Amino acid sequence: MKVINIAAYHFTHIADPAALAERMRVLAREGGLRGTVLVAPEGVNLFLAGTDEGVDAFLSPLREDERFAGMPVKTSRSSSQPFARLKVKVKPEIIAWRRADGAPLSHPRAPAVAPVDLARWIERGVDDDGRRVVLLDTRNREEVAYGSFRDALTLPIDNFTELVGALAPHREALADATLVSFCTGGIRCEKAALTLRAEGMDNVLQLDGGILGYFEQVGGTGYEGRCFVFDERVALDPSLQPLVDGEPQPAA
After folding, report:
1. Pick from 6, 145, 166, 227: most CB atoms within 10 A?
2. Are the CB atoms for 222 and 119 separated by under 8 Å?
3. Full-prediction pTM beyond 0.90?
4. Is 183 a catalytic residue?
């Protein structure tokens, strides 16, 4: 497949989001990339696609910046460009949460479980300490409809900001479990885990790298269906193959 798709996010202090957004816009345009880049005081979130050379030309200068030197990047392939255009935006947050207790730069990172370890827990039914494992889907109902981990706790939410309230009726029943929050790429489950732990749920972990990182590292163990993505591919299966792999229509 000729097109490489990259997904990445990184929480780091950005003193001048507008300046960084413009720099990333220039790099993406020079590399012929399309997709979405979000820049906020708390960091960056990006989904881009293009040629290998274009992606390398975009990422190499960023990795020379110590703020992004260790930024994990997830990759997949498609036979055509899944984005109609390039969009670069400055936002208050790279994913809206609007909660101080879930601000990653203000707190130590919530404990995470690696995909290989979660796959082992799923197969065994318990974590390494023998506690039952419950997977918490932090995505909205539209995304969940395309697929989720088997027997995951899914909530009837349309917006991420509704998650804490929707989870409230389940909290008592989850007290004896290891609760693993997950989302597409890791941003939402990272913020959710911080807030839930701040509210006293010290049994909450986050899936490192989200569903896409899980697919990339271990495949589809315990996962049913596909993972919704926010582009013309619609959803990816555990081998990172798109549901739709056709050229998008040009922007009007």
Report:
1. 227
2. yes
3. yes
4. yes
